[in-house]
Write a structure and sequence with these properties.
Layout lengths: L11 E2 L6 E5 L11 E7 L2 E6 L2 E5 L4 E4 L11 E6 L4 E6 L4 E5 L2 E5 L11 E6 L5 E5 L2 E5 L4 E4 L1 H4 L6 E6 L5 E5 L4 E4 L5 E4 L1 H4 L8 E4 L5 E4 L5 E4 L6 E4 L11 E6 L6 E5 L4 E5 L2 E5 L11 E6 L4 E6 L4 E5 L3 H5 L7 E2 L2 E2 L5 E15 L4 E13 L7 E9 L2 E9 L1
Parallel strand pairs: 1-26, 31-35
Antiparallel strand pairs: 2-29, 3-4, 4-5, 5-6, 7-8, 8-9, 9-10, 11-12, 12-13, 13-14, 15-16, 16-17, 17-18, 19-20, 20-21, 21-22, 23-24, 24-25, 25-26, 27-28, 28-29, 30-32, 32-33, 32-34, 34-35
Length: 405
């Protein structure tokens, strides 16, 4: 491998303008329950799926739908997908799938359709209008006339426990599972399964998936942090607590801002984590008015307005200031070379006061050193392979990928 001097940008958390956060919950609004599992935005209307009913809010007026005042049989809402300004699809815990068009409701369930399971936790509409469903009995697809199903018994899936489905730019589908790896469908319905054993996938479970402006998929995993696919089924790039500033590996949701490609990630214990290129920020109960740190879902209304569901505290509207974007553009620390031979000296672009550590892919610290008004250090005789350089400067942490050849 030819030696290169590549500059990697730092990754660290920064101070950020305080967003304006408005919390809607049972106690201060018509929201029917404080556990909000899913959010969908239909023009000016926001839809919230809760454990006890479906709610809509247009900014001024609320409307609620439960088994007592609507055709819903089950009030436990697990998935929402907007088709157009008049149609929304609703997935439930026990009564299957609903299509709501204006005031007309249609229910698809195990008894009256080809749907194989009444628990629908994910809904996607592909570029040809087909409805894809993530259920606890496999993947289902409805083309408007016929139903198609993929499961362990008939198709060799590793699990029937499907969590989420999203469509890519070429009408391909990315499917997340619990302990069943990732399933990729092409536009002709051929599929491949990618797992830890088969392709080195960091986590066989994925709770949410989104696509960035380049068509690259991003996966929120419950144990391995943030993962993206650099190819088609690997190689995988991952960000976890060992190699990045991400505060937890337990991600629950992900939503890519379509305007600026910022990644917004929900967590169980650390609020909302934001990643933009190599810069990170975190909204949590300690540094903002978030009512709790267990975020179940995130949706973008606009570049600066987000909606997030919580496990116990209803839904929050997050309005960022326009200054937030400029705050991502900070002076960047650089390290070079990043591909080098053992016992070679590494340099930063300016003198620093910091603790420098070398971490291997298992998270083990192999080298630590304190720099006082220095810019150079020699990590010694490292074996060939990939490593992380962690730099601790006051309350900021920087991370660089390096390769010993």
């Amino acid at each position: 491998m030819k030696k290169l001097s590549i500059l990697f940008l730092f990754e660290g958390f920064f101070s950020f303008s305080q967003p304006v956060i408005t919390n809607y919950r049972e106690e201060n609004s018509p929201l029917t329950f404080n556990t909000v599992r899913c959010i969908a935005i239909q023009s000016q209307t926001k839809w919230f799926g809760t454990d006890d009913g479906l709610c809509s809010f247009d900014g001024q007026n609320w409307e609620t739908f439960t088994s007592t005042n609507s055709p819903l049989i089950d009030d436990d809402i697990r998935a929402l997908k907007v088709e157009n300004d008049s149609t929304i699809w609703i997935g439930t815990m026990q009564s299957g799938l609903y299509k709501k068009q204006h005031s007309e409701w249609i229910n698809f369930n195990e008894s009256n359709s080809g749907l194989h399971d009444n628990l629908v936790r994910g809904i996607e509409i592909d570029s040809t209008g087909k409805i894809w469903l993530a259920t606890s009995e496999g993947v289902s697809m409805y083309d408007g006339t016929n139903w198609y199903n993929w499961n362990v018994t008939n198709n060799g899936l590793m699990t029937n426990n499907i969590t989420c489905i999203i469509t890519g730019f070429q009408n391909e589908k990315y499917v997340g599972t619990i302990n069943g790896g990732l399933i990729y469908f092409d536009s002709l319905l051929n599929y491949n399964i990618h797992s830890i054993v088969e392709s080195g996938l960091p986590d066989n479970s994925s709770l949410a998936i989104d696509i960035d402006s380049a068509g690259k998929p991003w996966f929120a995993t419950p144990a391995a942090g943030l993962v993206t696919d650099l190819g088609i089924g690997g190689p995988w790039e991952r960000w976890n607590t060992s190699n990045s500033p991400i505060p937890t590996n337990g991600l629950t949701s992900i939503a890519v801002n379509p305007i600026d490609d910022r990644l917004f990630m929900g967590t169980q214990v650390a609020g909302i984590v934001i990643k933009k290129d190599n810069n990170w920020f975190n909204y949590n109960t300690q540094n903002s008015s978030l009512p709790e740190d267990y975020i179940t879902c995130i949706s973008h209304e606009s570049q600066y307005i987000k909606w997030a569901g919580t496990y116990n505290s209803g839904v929050v509207r997050i309005e960022e200031s326009s200054a937030s974007m400029s705050e991502f553009k900070l002076q960047e620390l650089q390290l070079f070379p990043t591909i080098f031979s053992a016992n070679e000296t590494l340099k930063f672009n300016h003198e620093i006061n910091a603790h420098v550590s070398i971490i291997d892919q298992m998270g083990r610290y192999l080298f630590t050193h304190c720099l006082i008004d220095q810019r150079e250090f020699n990590p010694g005789l490292l074996h060939k392979g990939y490593y992380i350089v962690k730099v601790e400067v006051f309350d900021r942490h920087y991370f660089f990928n390096i390769v010993v050849e």
